[in-house]
């Protein structure tokens, strides 16, 4: 049997075959990449799935039940949610959490940014100062809270002894024993502890800004403030966005500091949402209602983060 | 080539999976088999091994002592004591119970969580075992564990709150030591007298008394015990679950007055500096101390080791609201008991129940007493064993106070117990830190408690 196809036709057939070969090769490669990719993320994803996703999904169900963690949860409809809206402790905790977040976030951000800019310059001994600023973050929280509690002691604490020099011993704040001053005290410790960590993140961002931009701005006659505002800040937008989102979420979830320093007191003046969840679950064995409160916290975090994403996207356009 | 590799890979993968499965199977076998016991939980040699929970075993010798003493008189039973954290005991136990891995015997640390454990059927019904002690006045405290006529735990320890006094300080100041007939008014008058006289006696920084208000029971459980009607649990339950907490007001008025007059450390100082009652009383910073009898053994030990100063001390009945109750002074204290897991296999359950009954009785009481804890069974022999410890007061009043007192519950048992206690705890913080008035703080707590719908009146009970 002879091949009576034209040479063009033969070439075309060969091209098609080669293309098919090639595409099957590409497919194989893609499959293999997907498989390898899945294998690489598997350890993390399995952990996330088992320890976070399943419990979170279960939480949606338990928030509609009455459950003491022993026996099976009993479905009780929207009772928990109705209870949430008339629960004075929940609203107290929400207000306290927002108070902490609204003061703590800008304060930490401003201080961390300021420190990062300062420690990005050619300062003498900056490695030492960077270490010093980061140090509180790696110190055990319980130890930190205990030492600060001693420093905040209204009578014997070093802070009030110092303040008394200026305002007199009768006018010093009661700190952890006063409803007015307990939250500021917690915010001071929280800010002191976290500034170093966010400074390191911002410092990493600062180091990616090309020096040419500053040089060009300088040539155009921009002063230091203009260079900061028109070069540093716009270039830092992605890092600042990431830092703000992380900082917001950690602020809304604050628990450890208040737990050790004040245990929510005096009264409910430093009771935050995460601690209220813990209290309802473990002090009262009311895991159903605790799920409801924690879902409320989850939705608040979600809402705030979505607003931040939306704002960032709008600005980037 | 690829095919070969893939085959090899698959083969290897299978081997890994098989190994992991074998490990998992092995682990689960060792977890539930405990040395090859049969379905009833009996070992091949006919003996039974039961597990028992305890906390901080190094400083709380009672668990191991009870286990060893029981093993000695019951050679066919072995008891493995499992260590739990003292602070997170209930959290760990709930996790183990809900995972079906709880020990066969576990203590009920207090009555606060008892209802939570008993109501979903996690605890074995011990009503038949408890019947043995039904008419035994020495174990009167067993009634605290009755829920709707059924018993799910038996006490082995009990503590009553009494008034500790530093005889050395009082005598040096020239003030009479408590004789067990004081009302709270007498107590206030003595504290004022001490405030005047202590500095001249050489105790310049000392306070007349110390109220350990980090414990909400001081003064809340005192008020509940002394204001409720009768000597049984019914009057107390009626008051506690009524949703009206105005019965706390007189005690708060007294406590606030005393902290204003600096007769005791203020709540703010206690909570900010995390003051311990051991150091306040043990280092003679306070001459009086209302506290549980659990402190007697440790105080004697601390005086021996030099952690506490050396001074002469004793305990007297807690001051009363009126002199009407001084013959049988009313105080509070929760029993500590043992419960049995409802899910243990039959042979283990039987052995566990027998152990719990033994620990509640006189034999167990003697063992508990020798470790420095007050036994729930208050016969002469058991109390002799307790007071035989070196360093404890030997006067008649100190010895009799436990038996003479009417001990009411710190935590009345019911579904709302934990919520009520947690809300009242927050109220205590507001009241004694003086951030809210007594009325406002109690109104807030009442509102929050009512809001949960857990009170008997809201459930149509």
The span between the termini of chain B is 77 Å
Tell me about the largest β-sheet of chain A. Answer: 2 strands, antiparallel
How much of the sequence lies in strands of chain B comes to: 5-15%
Terminal Cα span of chain A: 66 Å
Instruction: Give the overall pLDDT of chain A as a whole number.
Output: 89
- Largest sheet, strands/sense/barrel of chain B: 4 strands, mixed
* Lateral arrangement of strands in the main beta sheet of chain B: 8-9-7-10
- The strand count of chain B comes to 13
Strand order of the largest sheet of chain A: 1-2
| Biggest interface and residues each | A-B, 37 and 35 residues
Task: Report the C-alpha radius of gyration of chain B, rounded.
Answer: 26 Å
Shape of chain B: globular
Number of domains of chain A: 2
Structure write-up:
The complex is a heterodimer of chains A (317) and B (461). Chain A has 317 residues and is mainly α. Chain A folds into 2 domains: 7-62; 79-316, Orthogonal Bundle (MetI-like fold). Chain A is built from 13 helices and 2 strands, in the order αββαααααααααααα. In chain A, a hairpin with a 7-residue loop joins strand 1 (65-66) and strand 2 (74-75). The N and C termini of chain A lie far apart (66 Å). With 461 residues, chain B is an alpha/beta fold. Chain B folds into 2 domains: 48-158 and 334-400, D-Maltodextrin-Binding Protein, domain 2, CATH 3.40.190; 161-332 and 411-459, 3-Layer(aba) Sandwich (D-Maltodextrin-Binding Protein, domain 2), CATH 3.40.190.10. In chain B, 45% of the residues lie in helices and 13% in strands. Chain B contains 19 helices and 13 strands. Chain B has a 4-stranded mixed beta sheet. In chain B, a hairpin with a 2-residue loop joins strand 4 and strand 5 (150-151). In chain B, helix 15 runs parallel beside helix 16. Residues 23-34 of chain B have low confidence and may be disordered. At the A-B interface, helix 12 of A face helix 3, helix 11, helix 18 and helix 19 of B.
């Amino acid at each position: 049997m002879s091949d009576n196809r034209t040479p063009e036709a033969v070439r075309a057939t060969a091209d098609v075959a080669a293309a098919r070969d090639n595409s099957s090769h590409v497919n194989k490669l893609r499959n293999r990449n997907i498989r390898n990719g899945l294998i690489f993320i598997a350890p993390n994803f399995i952990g996330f799935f088992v320890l976070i996703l399943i419990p979170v999904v279960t939480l949606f169900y338990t928030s509609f039940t009455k459950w003491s963690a022993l026996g099976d949860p009993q479905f009780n409809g929207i009772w928990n949610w109705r209870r949430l809206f008339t629960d004075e402790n929940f609203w107290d905790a929400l207000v306290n959490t927002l108070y902490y977040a609204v003061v703590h976030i800008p304060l930490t951000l401003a201080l961390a940014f300021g420190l990062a800019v300062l420690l990005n310059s050619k300062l003498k001994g900056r490695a030492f100062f960077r270490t010093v600023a980061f140090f509180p973050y790696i110190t055990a929280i319980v130890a930190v809270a205990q030492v600060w509690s001693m420093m905040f002691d209204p009578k014997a604490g070093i802070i009030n002894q110092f303040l008394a020099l200026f305002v007199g011993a009768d006018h010093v704040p009661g700190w952890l024993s006063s409803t007015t001053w307990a939250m500021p005290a917690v915010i001071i410790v929280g800010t002191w502890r976290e500034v170093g960590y966010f400074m390191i993140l911002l410092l990493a961002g600062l180091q990616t800004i090309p020096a040419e931009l500053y040089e060009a701005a300088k040539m155009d006659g921009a002063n230091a403030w203009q260079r900061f505002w028109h070069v540093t800040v716009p270039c830092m937008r992605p890092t600042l966005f990431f830092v703000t989102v992380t900082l917001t979420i950690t602020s809304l979830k604050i628990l450890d500091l208040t737990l050790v320093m004040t245990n929510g007191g005096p009264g409910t003046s430093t009771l935050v949402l995460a601690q209220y969840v813990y209290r309802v679950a473990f002090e009262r064995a009311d895991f159903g209602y605790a799920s409801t409160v924690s879902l409320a916290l989850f939705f608040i975090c979600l809402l705030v983060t979505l607003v931040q994403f939306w704002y960032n996207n709008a600005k980037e356009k | 080539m690829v095919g070969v590799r893939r085959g090899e890979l698959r083969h290897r993968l299978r081997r890994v999976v098989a190994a992991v499965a074998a490990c998992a199977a092995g682990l689960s076998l060792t977890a539930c088999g405990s040395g090859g016991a049969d379905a009833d939980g009996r070992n091949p040699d006919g003996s039974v091994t039961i597990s028992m929970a305890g906390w901080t075993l190094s400083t709380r010798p009672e668990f191991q002592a009870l286990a060893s003493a029981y093993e000695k008189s019951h050679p066919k039973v072995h008891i493995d004591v499992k260590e739990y954290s003292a602070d997170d005991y209930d959290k760990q136990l709930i996790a183990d119970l809900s995972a079906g891995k709880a020990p066969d015997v576990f203590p009920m640390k207090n009555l606060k969580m008892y209802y939570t454990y008993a109501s979903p059927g996690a605890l074995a019904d011990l009503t038949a075992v408890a019947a043995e002690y039904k008419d035994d006045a020495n174990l009167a405290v067993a009634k605290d564990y009755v829920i709707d006529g059924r018993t799910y735990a038996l006490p082995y320890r009990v503590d009553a709150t009494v008034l500790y006094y530093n005889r050395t300080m009082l005598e040096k100041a020239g003030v009479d030591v408590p004789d067990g007939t004081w009302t709270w008014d007498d107590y206030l008058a003595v504290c004022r007298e001490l405030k005047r006289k202590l500095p001249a006696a050489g105790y310049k920084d000392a306070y007349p008394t110390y109220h350990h208000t980090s414990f909400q029971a001081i003064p809340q459980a005192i008020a509940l015990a002394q204001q409720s009607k009768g000597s049984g649990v019914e009057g107390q339950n009626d008051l506690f679950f009524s949703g009206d907490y105005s019965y706390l007001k007189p005690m708060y008025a007294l406590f606030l007055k005393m902290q204003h007059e600096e007769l005791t450390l203020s709540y703010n100082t206690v909570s900010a500096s995390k003051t311990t009652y051991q150091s306040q009383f043990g280092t003679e910073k306070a001459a009086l101390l209302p506290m549980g009898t659990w402190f007697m053994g440790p105080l004697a030990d601390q005086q021996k080791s030099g952690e506490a100063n050396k001074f002469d001390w004793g305990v007297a009945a807690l001051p009363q609201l009126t002199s009407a109750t001084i013959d049988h002074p009313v105080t509070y204290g929760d029993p500590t008991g043992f419960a049995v897991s409802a899910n243990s296999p039959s042979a283990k359950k039987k052995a566990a129940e027998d152990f719990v009954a033994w620990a509640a009785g006189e034999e167990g009481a003697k063992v508990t007493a020798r470790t420095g804890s007050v036994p729930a069974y208050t016969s002469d022999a058991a109390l002799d064993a307790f007071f035989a410890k070196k360093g404890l007061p030997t006067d008649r009043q100190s010895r009799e106070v436990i038996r003479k007192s009417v001990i009411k519950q710190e935590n009345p048992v019911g579904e709302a117990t934990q919520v009520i206690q947690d809300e009242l705890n927050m109220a205590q913080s507001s009241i004694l830190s003086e951030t809210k008035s007594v009325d406002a703080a109690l109104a807030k707590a009442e509102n929050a408690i009512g809001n949960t719908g857990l009170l008997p009146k809201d459930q149509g009970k």
